[in-house]
Design brief:
about 290 residues; alpha/beta; disordered N terminus; single chain; about 35% helix
């Protein structure tokens, strides 16, 4: 869990310290894309002395779930459970996990609900999930449940689109309107960047429907960043037809390693994204994306 200690420095900047990325949850459906996520998680765990929890969800009909909870599991239920455990054990023997602290869980529950419960019960710090890339959430772990995890998770969710042999975050793009409501999640963003020794490229997207002059936009960003102690960062104002295109085009222009944004629960990803645009961004970005809950 995040344990924040707020300090005020002599220059009036705020700094948050936290225990970070110690417990990493990897939901898996045993697909190639889930393996890509696990390989990235292994690199993060190795660098930050973290542990990995592998999770496979078995969604069962209501009456079957009742049988499991009552202790009268049907033979076919145990067959699927044992098969899943065997697959997880095989994955845990992978060379790229050698020397890491790895555990596994097979859960009989609706995927979305089960994942959110496990986050709290196991004090998870980070979730890493695989995605098919441009095809979007429909190809992610357990379908649309992944979209719900990204939207509602209280801990950061890192989405991996392809195999990454060396997960290094040098250029970390974070897009926002830099309003007061993102101060708390932005502290997590700063910690994330500092953990990876990444340079934060903070960008405000100007669109025809929500336009600010350069002077106004820069003043908003300057006032916002002055409240935080950030090791390395730069601010950018990028004009485009809409927010999604602006973030993708800006990230491409600097060859970013990672895109970050805030989630807003039922209001969708990032308050300023206007509805489904945020989900489209996560779907269409070919780069890794990490989300932080407001």
């Amino acid at each position: 869990m995040y344990l924040y200690i707020l300090k005020k420095l002599t220059n009036n900047k705020l700094i948050y310290t936290t225990f970070f990325m110690k417990k990493i949850l990897i939901p898996t459906d045993f697909s190639e894309h889930a393996e890509h996520a696990l390989k990235v998680a292994a690199q993060i765990a190795r660098k930050h002395d973290g542990e990995i929890i592998l999770l496979h969800m078995l969604e069962l009909p209501n009456q079957t779930g009742d049988a499991v909870s009552s202790g009268h599991a049907l033979p076919e239920i145990m067959f699927f459970k044992n098969a899943a455990l065997a697959k997880l054990e095989s994955i845990m023997d992978s060379d790229f996990l050698d020397g890491l602290n790895v555990s596994r869980i097979v859960q009989f529950e609706l995927a979305f609900e089960g994942i959110l419960k496990l986050i709290e019960i196991n004090d998870i710090d980070l979730i890493v999930m695989g995605s098919h890339g441009a095809s979007g959430f429909k190809d992610m772990f357990i379908g649309s449940n992944a979209e719900k995890v990204v939207r509602y998770s209280e801990v950061p969710v890192l989405i991996i689109k392809k195999e990454i042999e060396n997960f290094e975050v040098e250029k970390f793009v974070f897009a926002s309107d830099f309003s007061d409501e993102i101060k708390a999640p932005f502290a997590k963003v700063v910690n994330f960047a500092n953990e990876f020794n990444a340079k934060l490229h903070l960008v405000m997207i100007n669109t025809p429907n929500s336009f600010k002059s350069t002077l106004v936009a820069q003043e908003i960003m300057d006032n916002f960043t002055a409240q935080f102690d950030i090791k390395r960062f730069s601010t950018h104002i990028f004009n485009d037809a809409n927010v999604e295109k602006g973030i993708l085009n800006f990230s491409n222009s600097i060859n970013a390693d990672l895109i970050g944004m805030c989630t807003h629960g039922r209001k969708g990803l990032a308050h300023f994204f206007n509805g489904s645009i945020s989900e489209d961004l996560v779907n269409h970005a070919v780069r890794p994306v990490v989300t932080f809950k407001i």
